[in-house]
Every structure is written in C-alpha cells, then in structure tokens.
From TrEMBL:
Source superkingdom: Eukaryota
Protein name: 8219_t:CDS:1
Length: 54
C-alpha cells in the first residue's frame, strides 16, 4: 500500500479531511464472505494491530 505524504501530514494534525486512504481487498479473489469480520472485536483488533505496524 502506498500512503501519500500529504495524508501523513494531515493525519499528524488530526483526522484527515482532504486526503484519504482506500483499503482494497487483497487478493482480489476474496469476496464478502472471506477475510476478517470487522463486527468481531478480535478481528477488529487484528486489523488495528496490523495498521499500527505499517
């Protein structure tokens, strides 16, 4: 994933208003029944932990 420098600068000031990051499904063959269920607290934690490591 490539996150623009502008996004990081805006994020440092608070929640970005002008820039955004689009998280796409990877690999593309995944569908809405595969991957993580963000309604589940353990799976949300896994996603947040992975994002923190970026």
């Amino acid at each position: 994933a490539e996150i623009s420098e502008e996004y990081w600068r805006e994020l440092a000031k608070g929640l970005p208003k002008d820039n955004s990051v689009e998280i796409k499904r990877w690999p593309e063959k995944n569908d809405d029944r595969s991957g993580l269920d963000l309604a589940d607290s353990d799976e949300r934690k896994a996603v947040l932990t992975a994002l923190i490591k970026i």
